[in-house]
Amino acid sequence: MPxxxxxxxxxLNRLEQLCNSARLLYTEDAxxxxxxxxxxxxxxxxxxxxxxRKEHDLLLRLRETVREHLEGQERTAELNRLxxxxxxxxxxxxxxxxxxxxxxxxxxxxxxxxxLALVFTSGLTGELERLKVCHNxxxxxxxxxxxxxxxxxxxxxxxxxxxxxxxxxxSRHAR
Length: 175
Hints:
Layout: H1 12-19, E1 22-23, E2 28-29, H2 34-43, H3 53-71, H4 76-86, E3 91-92, E4 98-99, H5 107-125, E5 131-133, E6 142-144, H6 157-172
Antiparallel strand pairs: 1-2, 3-4, 5-6
């Protein structure tokens, strides 16, 4: 991670990793091609071979939908479409815990389904509200807000926050 914030705790780290596979401030995207996406998935422990174009598109679609949802954009219809593709109906585990299982059992389908199920379940618990998207439109880095008031807006005050303050200052003092 290029910024000073610590990773999101527990399972939320998985969503943070997915969203931050694109470092927009540095114009880097680990999922830019099917080959690079396959390599990234293997690096995070998803045992895939080479993914094909349709799987690649679904991976990108999920990443961007989750990021936009975290930003507060209206993405309900797209989240529901993805849920229809990726998730089976709710079930209970043998221990009696509620689960949202993936619809298919392949490694990529399981990963995508688990990520989407995590958006749902952490949304129910309110924990998803702590995942924020940097307000710098050039950055959009996803970070976990550990502040007591949950009001952080920048991934890094040293980078994006400072740039915003400087732009604001310059616009006020422009002649």
